[in-house]
Amino acid sequence: MRRIYVAGHRGMVGSGLVRQLMQAGGVEVITRTHAELDLTNQQAVADFFATESIDEVYLAAARVGGIFANNTYPADFIYDNLMIECNVIHQAYQAGVTKLLLLGSSCIYPKAVSQPMSEEALLTDVLEPTNEPYAIAKIAGIKLCESYNRQHGVDYRSVMPTNLYGENDNFHPENSHVIPAMMRRFHEAKLNNDSSVVVWGSGTPMREFLHVNDMAAASIYVMDLDTETYQSHTQAMLSHINVGTGVDCTIRELAESLKQVIGFEGELAFDASKPDGAPRKLMNVERLAQLGWRANISLLEGLEQTYAWFLEHQNDYRK
């Protein structure tokens, strides 16, 4: 039975991976909380891999957040993510782990890149300033995987998801991504009978959103591809693969959809003094489609599922 370590199993994507791996069966899923294993601690990670006989690694652990968090804590974002990636990837190799999947982010691509963003656009121009430290850390993770493949002959792959959302997301009103932050804001406005909800930014940027269950399914699919098939649709074994829906919408359209799902009857007010971030972020997902996988959950369906989950767990977010 394969022993699969999911790093970051309490996070949104990590928990989705654990659910789907356990449902599929035939594997032993290994997890550690942050209290049990600090992934920024090199010796602790080395000791873990030396004793656990891990066969495969899903590296979903990361410090993540929205525009506000990235702007406020840039040193934390670059340091923590670099340390996590370096420690897990290197110690996995040291322990003889030959299969690893790194989960990255669409922010690795340049701010002014042509849309939709293809894998070949990496490192072709400057990054979006508001999340550059996080993006650089994720680019470093891709290059770590590529370099260990080249030098050591392992099979370390990378998938780059678009904006993710779903159950076990972070619903903090300021330090979270756009969907959970807006969902909580709309929900509380509904409870308070507020006349309006303020949405950060102009509402014009376009974003693509992928439900976490689709992301977990895609990750497992890519990990399980045989080497020949995987390499035939990438730039040898050095390439990363985009994961998304291939469909985007404006932030205003997203807000309207959230308003509908939550049942908020007030008005929308857009605060253009807040940063918009990149004007558009849409993934080119043809490479993954050619490999046989496409997203299954529509945005409206995903928002409804996420709001239902939030209602069941909202007491966890009262602070």
Automatic annotation (TrEMBL):
Its EC number is 1.1.1.271. Pathway: Nucleotide-sugar biosynthesis; GDP-L-fucose biosynthesis via de novo pathway; GDP-L-fucose from GDP-alpha-D-mannose: step 2/2. One of its GO terms (molecular function) is NADP+ binding. Keywords: Isomerase, Multifunctional enzyme, NADP, Oxidoreductase. HAMAP family: GDP_fucose_synth. Catalyzes the two-step NADP-dependent conversion of GDP-4-dehydro-6-deoxy-D-mannose to GDP-fucose, involving an epimerase and a reductase reaction. This is GDP-L-fucose synthase.
